[in-house]
Amino acid sequence: xxxxxxxxxxxxxxxxxxxxxxxxxxxxxxxxxxxxxxxxxxxxxxxxxxxxxxxxxxxxxxxxxxxxxxxxxxxxxxxxxxxxxxxxxxxxxxxxxxxxxxxxxxxxxxxxxxxxxxxxxxxxxxxxxxxxxxxxxxxxxxxxxxxxxxxxxxxxxxxxxxxxxxxxxxxxxxxxxxxxxxxxxxxxxxxxxxxxxxxxxxxxxxxxxxxxxxxxxxxxxxxxxxxxxxxxxxxxxxxxxxxxxxxxxxxxxxxxxxxxxxxxxxxxxxxxxxxxxxxxxxxxxxxxxxxxxxxxxxxxxxxxxxxxxxxxxxxxxxxxxxxxxxxxxxxxxxxxxxxxxxxxxxxxxxxxxxxxxxxxxxxxxxxxxxxxxxxxxxxxxxxxxxxxxxxxxxxxxxxxxxxxxxxxxxxxxxxxxxxxxxxxxxxxxxxxxxxxxxxxxxxxxxxxxxxxxxxxxxxxxxxxxxxxxxxxxxxxxxxxxxxxxxxxxxxxxxxxxxxxxxxxxxxxxxxxxxxxxxxxxxxxxxxxxxxxxxxxxxxxxxxxxxxxxxxxxxxxxxxxxxxxxxxxxxxxxxxxxxxxxxxxxxxxxxxxxxxx
Amino acid sequence: xxxxxxxxxxxxxxxxxxxxxxxxxxxxxxxxxxxxxxxxxxxxxxxxxxxxxxxxxxxxxxxxxxxxxxxxxxxxxxxxxxxxxxxxxxxxxxxxxxxxxxxxxxxxxxxxxxxxxxxxxxxxxxxxx
Lengths: 596, 129
What we know:
The structure holds two protein chains of two kinds.
Chain A: H1 9-18, H2 22-72, E1 94-95, E2 101-114, H3 121-131, H4 137-145, E3 150-157, H5 159-168, E4 173-182, H6 190-193, E5 195-201, E6 206-212, H7 213-217, H8 219-223, E7 232-233, H9 238-254, E8 259-266, E9 272-278, E10 311-312, H10 318-327, E11 336-338, E12 342-344, E13 347-349, E14 360-362, H11 363-369, H12 372-382, H13 384-393, H14 420-427, E15 433-434, H15 436-447, H16 472-488, E16 502-511, E17 517-530, E18 537-544, H17 562-576
Parallel strand pairs in A: 1-7
Antiparallel strand pairs in A: 1-2, 2-3, 2-4, 5-6, 8-9, 8-18, 10-15, 11-14, 12-13, 16-17, 17-18
Helix pairs in contact in A: 3-4, 3-5, 9-17, 10-12, 10-16, 11-16, 12-14
Chain B: H1 2-58, H2 61-70, H3 72-75, H4 99-102
């Protein structure tokens, strides 16, 4: 590049001769030179800008094109990665503590119709009505031809029905795959499992949602794709559950009860091994019963008596008063208690059947013979406030925390005020209602040496770590008292050579809806723990309106109805639980006690 | 020298092209095989799930109880009872070992193949301690 000098000598000399300022020439040249530099710089910057915008343009085009392709193409399973095969089940299985299946999924098909593709709607309607007897050919044909283009026919089909529909051979009949919830054990543990139904439905899939029981309470866990491969392990034992249900059904039948409930619970871990309620239903085909107006909610088979049944539980509450009085140091098992009379204001407390247990009985004997007056006196010594606090700490006054959707709704009924009369009646389980499951948890707390037990339906191995409600000594003495109820008291039918049962009977009159109590309708409860020397399980059996009509006089007390049922349950389930029968200690050979 | 280089690089491009062509088709074949295997795995899993459900259905306690009742004369099954627990003392001691069993394995009997023995054993005598 040739550089033009700023002061060319020829022009300077020329200018000087003309008398002009030579500096003007220099400035002019400098200006020209700057102009050239500026032009160069601009074109370079323009080039750079162009290059950069090209880069951006192509980058955005690539991203845009990729997005367009992704949104426009059909979704495709990633076939090459090995992860794809793992997601087969949409909803996790439910198994019992030994891994036996309680709920699983099965692939089936739904049937729908694209009416535009139907060749001969009249024939299809006729053929479908032949396969599904509940359908009407004329109505179907009307729906095929009234202008709609899409129609669901069936939510699930059996393989035989599907084959029959295939054989109709009309291109307008189409199948959509469905995962169906299956409960292979039928009615077993129906109230725990609840049931499931289809939620949002599409042509190629439908979501399965839990409608009741643990299926609904644990819905989020069961639907979580990350845990779809791991089944939900329940604490139930299928064999024990089947045995308990069988015996409960036999008991309900034998004593012509309206229903019954049974709960078997491990006192160390709080695991519920069996939870049964009768009448029951089949979760595969969950009914939707329409009850007559005057029916109790408990008449519905869907009603879970063990959890939702908030009843007055009667004398089973007496042990709580005795245990609390011992815990407070007011009484010992041998303290004499007045059992002659108890009058609170206008109310006179009477014994069952107007028995008279004499002027005094020890605390232990009060529990043994189930004296209302004696328990009332103990409760008055404790006082209403402390009693409320103790019952609350045992969990009897709040809904059970168990993993069932029905549990939070079953609030125990308690009086708003707590005058002395309530203190007395609550001590023998009247005027205050709780569910059998709460009772089981409270008895488990006593059997667990006084450490609070929270019931759970999920399998756990670690022992319960709850707050201490009573001292170990008191809990032990309470179990000994319960044992004496079986050996000497009202629950003598639970005495058996194999297992030492400890328990308390409870007979509560049913409240009338209009107020007051029925005289011939009772709820019988037997709350027990076994083996008494080292309690491991708690069993609650509750029967609704049972009557033992075999004798000359109908017997309605728990000792004659709930106790034999519970005893049979213990005899049958304890071996399944691995409990060895207690053997009476044999005298050592050749050694006998002799004196002189 | 230069033409030789041109020819050589041309040949190399041809060879690489051929190699890429073959690799492409092998990969596609492998992908197809994977897809087929995934399909097979999925259908096997599906039938596994159905068979598990069927196994649970056939083993439901109701049915087993009914079958045990129906076949009581053959099987004689009863519900488990507390009396069925035994004690260790009820288990018989194993019979004392026979002298022949006590002999160490390496005893040089010189027998490799089984031999046939015929005759009668003397029932009496003092064979076992």
